[in-house]
Write a structure and sequence with these properties.
The protein has about 550 residues and is an alpha+beta fold. The protein has two domains: about 230 residues, no CATH class; about 200 residues. It contains 18 helices and 16 strands. The strands form six sheets. A four-stranded mixed β-sheet has the order 2-7-8-4. The protein has a four-stranded mixed β-sheet with strand order 10-13-12-11. Strands 1-16 form a two-stranded antiparallel sheet. β14 and β15 form a beta hairpin. α13 crosses α14. The longest helix is centred in the first third of the chain and has 23 residues. The relative contact order is 0.14.
Length: about 550
């Protein structure tokens, strides 16, 4: 977030997913060290994705990492994956369960020299289930008979002696697979994935659980479905076909988590890990999402996944003609010039000064009559809960912020806020403050919600405030403050801020959907997105 300035952070553990490279029929997961790809130049006239005409974008000019989509060789950028951070919330990786007697042993071609992984049977189960599921879903949605994957699925590793099939070339090398992590080739109707011991998928499986690879497989299989439906023959921005593939992956994950598969099942922890992984595999902040190979921000990818999870395949099939709104993801000129987060501090122009100011202006000015009167809240930093002078505190200090109604004060856990600021970026703190102000709004409105229900409405209300800070096209091809809006308000989110909010939600959500305290990860993200996309009225309707 910025006050006419910049905020963004590229997570060191992120990877870039692109659709490019070996030939135009390839759709791929690619591993890049995106932190080093922060643009050094900008295109100040770029508009938000919701209002941008894709035909006006020049990928070669806008995206320093883009490549000729007709090229026969993959980009030269090699894998550079950062080791998982110790504090990652998914350090204990879940293990999905499978039914061994239902698995097709030939579902994956493992080759002769493969080092066994403890999730090999799970991957076979995933492919078995995807084939079975789509054999029913494809005719129901598209009206034609389903054609199984004719080219097969291949595990790639350094010492595999037999050739991997080529996509526009005689063969695919392991180096190419390692760059792309996993890809579907329409020309040969096959999928290849990196099965190397040190590959990105092995790291994701170790960090988040093998369910994450299942999501990758479901996404790539989604491109096989698009080939059968003719979607990849249409002149569409890559980000829209990738959005649909994310939706297909979510629909499959929803099926598995609901117990509708006889082959594989997911727990809450598996779904949680899948969502976490999707925040790690998104376009780097600053990338124009409409360039060839754009996949979307973490905010958008998680949103498409959730649509599939809750609404199913038929809804996903509609997305090419009616795409989901995309959050803007490209730097403005001032973003690149500033190049970092708003300063962490309480002085004028610093994060802990202008966010509370904007929250007060929004809730008391623009929507005060509708949301009740909360008065101007004062933000106070504290190093421990012992410093809170309040008998009616709402919230958990260890989670970041506490609202005290009797004194109209919000106490910020300053050490925790500083840590999450340093780890995720400044809007992680903006989200925490937003939920404290949202609690004040619920109290002003006399809300009698409790526990998870109350926390989810706070997420939605925070999203509604955020919606009024998201820049829009001002009609002259430039980003500007959204209108109508009070003239005194100057805070505006920057590319990457919405992703930072999602990552913060990951940190504080309930581990299980049965906990019903703060809301499960899926539920909290959905509530926050509801506020951002639908606005305040949709949140007030929940009260």
């Amino acid at each position: 977030m910025r006050t006419r300035g910049l905020i963004t952070l590229v997570a060191a553990t992120s990877v870039l997913l692109v659709s490019c490279g070996i030939d135009p029929t390839v759709t791929a997961e690619r591993s890049d060290q995106i932190a080093s790809q922060r643009p050094t130049e900008t295109t100040p006239t770029t508009t938000p994705a919701e209002t941008t005409d894709p035909s006006q974008n020049d990928p070669a000019q806008d995206d320093p990492t883009s490549s000729d989509p007709t090229a026969t060789d993959p980009p030269s950028t090699g894998p550079a994956v950062t080791e998982p951070a110790e504090e990652d919330p998914a350090s204990t990786a879940p293990s999905p369960s499978v039914a061994p007697d239902q698995i097709d042993p030939a579902a994956i071609d493992f080759g002769p020299n493969k080092t066994p992984h403890d999730y090999d049977d799970f991957l076979r189960a995933v492919m078995t289930d995807l084939e079975s599921w789509w054999s029913d879903e494809y005719p129901a949605v598209y009206g034609d008979a389903f054609q199984p994957l004719s080219g097969g699925v291949y595990a790639a590793y350094p010492n595999r002696p037999d050739d991997l099939p080529g996509c526009g070339e005689p063969r695919t090398t392991y180096d190419e697979v390692q760059q792309f992590v996993a890809f579907y080739c329409g020309q040969g109707d096959f999928i290849i994935y990196d099965d190397g011991d040190d590959g990105l998928l092995a790291q994701l499986a170790g960090q988040y659980g093998p369910g994450t690879i299942g999501i990758v497989f479901a996404h790539e299989f989604g491109h096989a479905i698009q080939t059968r439906a003719g979607a990849l023959d249409r002149d569409l921005p890559t980000v829209f076909t990738e959005q649909q593939a994310d939706c297909f992956a979510g629909a499959w994950a929803g099926r598995v988590s609901r117990g509708e598969s006889s082959v594989v099942s997911f727990s809450d922890a598996d779904v949680r890990s899948g969502l976490i992984a999707m925040t790690k595999v998104s376009d780097p902040v600053g990338l124009n999402q409409f360039v060839e190979g754009g996949h979307g921000s973490a905010f958008d990818r998680v949103g498409a996944f959730q649509v599939g999870f809750t609404d199913g395949v038929a809804r996903c099939a509609e997305l090419l003609d009616s795409p989901l709104p995309l959050s803007f993801n490209q730097f403005t000129e001032s973003d690149v010039t500033t190049g970092g987060n708003a300063p962490f501090g309480f002085d004028a122009g610093e994060l802990l000064e202008f966010i509370p100011t904007d929250l007060n202006l929004y809730w008391n000015g623009e929507v005060g009559a509708e949301a009740g009167s909360i008065g101007d809240l004062t933000l106070v930093g504290a190093t421990s809960a012992d410093e809170i002078e309040c008998d009616d505190a709402s919230g958990a200090f260890e989670l970041g912020a506490v609202y005290c109604a009797s004194t109209n004060t919000v106490y910020l856990n300053e050490p925790a806020a500083r840590e999450i600021y340093d780890t995720l970026g400044d809007f992680s703190v903006g989200y925490l403050l937003g939920t404290a102000w949202s609690e004040a709004v619920q109290q002003a409105l006399g809300s009698d919600l409790e526990g998870e229900d109350r926390a989810l409405v706070n997420d939605c209300l925070t999203g509604a405030w955020v919606k009024t800070t998201v820049p829009v096209d001002n009609g002259a091809g430039q980003l500007d403050l959204p209108q109508p809006r009070a003239e005194e308000r100057t805070a505006m989110v920057s590319a990457g801020d919405l992703d930072e909010a999602i990552q913060t939600i990951i940190e504080i959500s309930d581990e299980s959907s049965d906990d019903d305290v703060r809301g499960g990860l899926f539920e909290k993200i959905s509530a926050f997105r509801q506020g951002v996309t639908e606005g305040l009225d949709s949140c007030l309707a929940e009260l």
